[in-house]
Specification:
heterodimer; A: mainly beta; seven-stranded mixed beta sheet; three-stranded antiparallel beta sheet; 10 strands; B: alpha+beta; five-stranded antiparallel beta sheet; 12 strands
């Protein structure tokens, strides 16, 4: 079982955005074994290509929540807002697909020296008319709902 | 001094090999770039300054925007000429050496004949480009606005420097995906047209100097994708000019332009 649990919650549970929108939300990083030391903890807004060509990746924005070597509390909660650029739009073509994603990436070490390495990726649709994506592509899959932790088991 | 020519040839091929290795390393580097964030401050930059919106060089002439062809006839002319001279020079020098050799054997000659055929094809391609320059002249495409927004429309004017009548002229609006994979000398780019629509088809169209040959208007579909360019993947828009000219080489040229990710009023109303 992983010692670190992550939550990446987007405001209003939105997963479809228009270009130049702002993505707001909250991150929760919970280390079950107490305090830990961060290598880095970022929220990254990025797009990736998929298809015949070599994968390309573009980072539209990111927020660092910890500096390297910073001592972190057992539970860290932070709000974030990231602006989306004009392009690229989500695209499902023949040779090329462009997918947007919001990711929470956490790397560090526990007090016992154990390596902590966890991430959550939330797929997004960035398009002025998301319905057109659904209409134009048989491969379109609706974005997954935001990740939420299962309820904690009762203690005792 | 007698060793100079082989040394020169060896140096040329070594340089080509080094360039191939360098190109392979460079393309691997581009493919592995992860963090290249936009320099975001309060708001993201407009699409003009977005690194994934392609740059395009156009020519402005008396207020009109002239598109440049994807492959310039002049560049083709000089490239094919130099390539044909070097290729055929080396090939026929080798064939001459084989034929003059006292221990003449037919097998090396057969092997070299493949290179001679390739050289002849390159030479023929150069002759076609030369005939196009002399007999057909320069094809000029002027566009009303560039970039064109998604769902937007613009005018197009075709000029042809020549004195002939084309049997057929067709102008098509094209959107093309270009996906590249591999590295160095084994890098391949696959192109696929995802949208192609003829915006004009006419017969018996005269060309008289630089006078306008045809004029038309076209619109970018409202559900189209904007122009995009990253290290290995490109979405390119352009117009394709095809002309069938009796007694002269046909024209088949692609003039790229950009489609901007600007939402036009109609599209915005539909999305509400």
């Amino acid at each position: 079982m992983s010692l670190i649990e992550l939550q990446l919650i987007v405001k209003d549970n939105k997963t479809e955005f228009a270009p130049r929108d702002h993505i707001s939300g909250r991150i929760v990083i919970q280390h079950l074994a107490g305090a830990w030391k961060a290598a880095h903890a970022d929220v990254v807004l990025a797009w990736k290509t998929k298809g015949k060509g070599t994968m390309d990746e573009g980072v539209a924005g990111y927020i660092n929540f910890a500096k390297k070597g910073q001592q972190m509390p057992p539970v860290l909660e932070r709000d974030f807002t990231l602006p989306l650029p004009d392009l690229p739009w989500t695209y499902y073509g023949h040779h090329i697909k462009i997918n947007w994603q919001l990711g929470l990436h956490v790397f560090g070490k526990g007090a016992d020296g154990k390596k902590l390495d966890q991430e959550i990726i939330l797929p997004l649709v960035v398009h002025p008319d998301p319905d057109s994506i659904r209409r134009s592509s048989n491969n379109y899959l609706p974005p997954l709902p935001p990740y939420t932790l299962p309820p904690a088991p009762p203690t005792g | 001094m007698g060793n100079l020519p082989p040394l020169v040839f060896g140096a040329i091929f070594s340089l080509v090999g080094l360039a191939g290795i360098g190109g392979g390393i460079y393309s691997l580097t581009i493919g592995n770039q992860r963090h290249n964030p936009l320099k975001l401050k309060l708001a993201p930059p407009s699409y003009n300054h977005n690194p994934w919106f392609p740059k395009l060089s156009t020519r402005k002439d008396m207020g009109k925007i002239q598109l440049r062809p994807e492959v310039s006839t002049g560049c083709s002319f000089w490239f094919l000429l130099v390539f044909a001279l070097i290729w055929n020079g080396i090939t026929y020098a080798a064939i001459f050496g084989i034929v003059r050799d006292e221990k003449f054997s037919v097998f090396p000659l057969v092997f070299m004949s493949v290179f001679a055929v390739i050289g002849a094809l390159v030479l023929w391609a150069w002759v076609r480009v030369l005939l196009q320059i002399l007999l057909v002249g320069r094809t000029v495409v002027e566009i009303g606005s560039e970039p064109v927004p998604v769902g937007g429309a613009t005018t197009l004017l075709l000029r042809q420097n020549g004195n002939f009548t084309a049997d057929k002229v067709r102008i098509s609006l094209i959107c093309r995906e270009e996906a590249s994979y591999g590295a160095g000398s084994s890098r391949t780019t696959d192109k696929h047209e995802v949208y192609a629509k003829a915006v004009l088809e006419r017969s018996n169209v005269p060309a008289r100097g630089y006078s306008p040959m045809v004029q038309t208007e076209f619109a970018i579909p409202p559900d189209a994708m904007h122009s995009f360019k990253s290290g290995n993947n490109v979405i390119a828009w352009g117009v394709r000019i095809e002309m069938v000219i009796p007694g002269r080489p046909d024209v088949d040229m692609f003039f790229p332009f950009r489609v901007s990710p600007v939402v036009t009023a109609d599209r915005y109303r539909r999305s509400q």
